[in-house]
Design brief:
With 59 residues, the chain is of the alpha+beta class. It contains 3 helices and 3 strands. The protein has helices spanning 20-31, 33-37, 39-45, and strands at residues 2-7, 15-17, 46-51. It has a 3-stranded antiparallel β-sheet with strand order 2-1-3. Strand 1 and strand 2 form a beta hairpin. The mean pLDDT is 88.
Length: 59
């Protein structure tokens, strides 16, 4: 299983990154340190989701 972090950005399209550190940097950039370093507030803007790469179907 592979996971990615999806970060809600001020634009229309959320961004997906591979590591929590990258997600934390994006939250810091867009929303400030209060949201990036407080775990409960961080989870408002960043979610860890399961990622299925294209072409990995078992069909």
């Amino acid at each position: 299983m592979q996971y990615v972090w999806v970060v809600e950005t001020p634009g229309d399209v959320p961004m997906a990154v591979k590591t929590r550190a990258q997600a934390q940097e994006l939250v810091l950039l867009y929303y400030g340190s209060d949201y990036a370093f407080e775990p409960i507030l961080f989870k408002v803007f960043a979610k860890r989701v399961l990622f299925y790469p294209a072409g990995d179907d078992d069909e």
